[in-house]
Amino acid sequence: MAKDQDNDLKQLKQQYKITFSSKEGEKVLADLTSAYYHRSSFIKNDPHETSYREGQRSVLIRIINLLKEDKNV
Fold first, then answer.
1. CA dist list (Å): 33 to 14, 52, 57, 60, 61
2. Is 71 left (phi over 0), alpha (psi -120 to 50) or beta?
3. What is the DSSP letter of 9?
4. For 34-72, what is the HEC assignment?
5. Could you give the CA distance from residue 23 to residue 27 in angstroms, rounded to a whole number?
6. Which residue, 21, 31, 49, 66, is most buried by CB atoms nearer than 10 A?
7. How many CB atoms lie within 10 A of CB 49?
């Protein structure tokens, strides 16, 4: 079972790399990074907006993490 999950993760990471390694994909990733990563997710006195922004940021962090080189997976 773990071997299947490792293979699935390897395949998924490869798909992310294909998607974001093109010229267009790099531009999209740069836009997402600018819009959701480099801004503060905290909004004073508004926990709902803070949660919403943190959710946006967490999606981008997942993309970035899947694009990282990982020799174990």
1. 20, 16, 9, 7, 9
2. alpha
3. H
4. HHHCCCCCCCCCCHHHHHHHHHHHHHHHHHHHHHCCCCC
5. 6
6. 66
7. 13
